[in-house]
Amino acid sequence: MKKSSKGKTKAYPDTWTVKNEIQVNGRTVTFGTELSITGEAGRFRFIKHVKTPTAEWIDVVGGRKGYSVFRSFYVSRVKTVHWKNKTVENVVKERKEQKKLENANSSED
Fold first, then answer.
1. Residue 23 and residue 78: Cα distance in Å, rounded?
2. Cβ(45)–Cβ(89) below 8 Å
3. Which of 24, 45, 57, 80 is the most exposed place for a label (fewest CB within 10 A)?
4. How far is CA 16 from CA 23, 38, 50, 75, 76, in A?
5. Predicted local distance difference test score (pLDDT) of residue 92
6. Taking CA 98 as the corner, what is the angle to CA 96 and CA 104, rounded to the nearest 5 degrees?
7. What's residue 4's pLDDT?
8. How far is 67 from 63, CA to CA, in rounded Å?
9. Chunked mean pLDDT (size 10), the chain, 109 residues
């Protein structure tokens, strides 16, 4: 790993490309988008896409209900990009956002 000008180490080598967005199966996948992976049980939430000179993969978190783990998979293993969120973390996040909007709308009236 290389050192930055402030003396801190960088998280990735210069030859790696790390993005928070990717196109999979014709859909734009961003942070938190739920995916199904071929051969794996449960849903996974997208974190980042990493591309090196020799490999390309995605980092995700999730899995079976109640057993959330951090995993990495080749992009080719993505089976489905889900439209609706069903994992507990995403559902809670959506409800909080709805409440904020409702509170903002009620305070305007």
1. 11
2. yes
3. 80
4. 18, 25, 7, 16, 19
5. 76
6. 105
7. 53
8. 6
9. 57 88 90 92 93 95 88 94 77 76 72
